[in-house]
Amino acid sequence: MKKLLFFAGLLISFMTATAQQAVLIRNVEIFNGVDEKTFQGNVLVENHLISKVSGDPIDVSALPDVTIIDGQGLFLMPGLIDAHVHTMMESMPLQQALVSEISFISLFAAHSAEKQLMRGFTTVRDMGGNPFALKRAIDGGLAKGPRIYPSGAMISQTGGHGDFRMPTDVPPMLCGALTYMESSGMAAIADGHDEVLRKTREQLRKGASQIKLAAGGGVSSDYDPLDVAQYTTEEFKAAVAAAENWGTYVTVHAYTPKAIRTAIEAGVRCVEHGQLADAGIAKLMADRGVWWCLQVFLDDEDVTPFPEGSENRAKQIEMTRGTVTAYQLAKKYKVKTAWGSDCLFDARLAARQGAQLVKLTHWYTPYEVLKMATSTNAELLALSGPRNPYPHKLGVIESGAYADLILVKGSTLENIHLIEDPKANFLLIMKDGVIYKNHMDRAAE
After folding, report:
1. Which of 118, 187, 405, 431 could pair covalently with 181 via S-S, beta carbons 3.0-4.6 A apart?
2. Beta-strand (E) ranges in 246-382?
3. The domain 80-363 is classified under which CATH number: 3.30.1390.10, 3.90.980.10, 1.10.150.320, 3.20.20.140?
4. pLDDT digits over 338-363, tens only?
5. Residue 223 vs residues 96, 167, 394: alpha-carbon distances, Å
6. Which residues pair with 408 in a beta bridge?
């Protein structure tokens, strides 16, 4: 017991040592994450929260220990939010992930998470994997990265989008032994009402802030054509009931109208992707208040490389052709729209996370893009209700919100392409009141 208390004390001391007591950022142009109009002002951060935002000078003479940063009139914005990531798998190649131990995957993911934070993404919603240990390490100051809203393993039917088992793993052994990817919490295969109910409860037990199911075929999965609808209404209802009992919600991977409609009729509150949706589905989502978390999947330089002529490539081409229509429908029917990058198994693409966000300007103004990636995405995260692991406001610069701030070498409202090169253009990155990057000495360069 004494040893346990000793190590607990060390952890508490470490966490306390990493917290900033007070930081005053003065003389900045503030985009608060909500309003298109900016204003010149000052921001005071105490511990991990924004304590004051003012157009007038802020008196800090009564505070015992304050770090003062002269913003030199530069552009201050909230930390960016990516509503669809796979923290454990964004940069590791698929074949390596399938044969690696979870301990190595976690160490690899921690390295990637720090890079993501340094791209200005201070919060992410994880849409499948086992990021619970990484989340705990980041929250405790043992690793650097964005705050994570974890779904846990994506729950998939046999042969569904989340079934990455080897062909010889089916049928399963009579003893009920799980594959390593399942036992390590990276995947969850469930068939029938009772299994879906149990797997949902398992993710909630681990600390999931929301639940993710595969409702239809996927591009990267090998067993399911894109048009396949997965899970029945009753199976979806099992997951929805379990999530609602915990005060949170279910989201689904889906592309086609049938897959989306079945999920929505069962009470699902968010759809990921949906590139093949039609007008009827867009109207249904708008009428039911269902969120649409879309990705800018285009057949361009950032497309995930699949061999030409392969089934995966054919599915990819079909899906990317629907992206333009999907965004047009989302705007026409005023569906609640969020943005996520959904980078998988590709370190090169992960490094272009900000560039993926900028592609939204095909359909939205720079202001609309920035608002979506800050305060709007934060609204989606808040759907997790009492399961929200971070109860203060996100995606905004206002009193009482988390101190997640980026100081940019230029206005991203006037030149949103600055986000594409965070190394050069993000001079200061703060998350939770802690400064992770401060290159203000280069502001004049």
Report:
1. 187
2. 250-254, 270-273, 291-294, 337-339
3. 3.20.20.140
4. 999 999 899 999 999 999 999 999 99
5. 19, 9, 38
6. 75, 426
Residue showing tokens 């200061």: 428
Token look-up 């998988």 returns 344
The pairing of beta strand 291-294 with beta strand 270-273: parallel
- Give residue-wise pLDDT tens across range 117-147: 999 999 999 999 999 999 999 999 999 999 9
Q: What is the H or E stretch that residue 303 is in? A: none
Q: What is the pTM of this model?
A: 0.94
The CATH superfamily label for domain 2-79+395-442 reads Urease, subunit C, domain 1 (2.30.40.10)
Task: Tell me the three state secondary structure of residue 361.
Answer: helix
Distance of alpha carbon 278 from alpha carbon 402, whole angstroms: 38
Beta strands in 63-183 (DSSP E): 67-70, 75-78, 80-85, 121-126, 147-150, 155-156
Q: Where are the domains of the chain?
A: 2-79+395-442, 80-363
Which helix (DSSP H) or strand (DSSP E) does residue 243 occupy? helix 233-245
Q: How far apart are CA 445 and CA 443, in angstroms?
A: 6
Using DSSP's 3-state secondary structure scheme, residue 238 falls into helix
Please tell me the distance from the alpha carbon of residue 156 to that of residue 196, in angstroms, as a whole number: 9
Closest by Cα among 394, 420, 370, 417 to 50: 394
The three-state secondary structure class of 347 is helix
- 122 CB neighbour count, 10 Å cutoff: 28
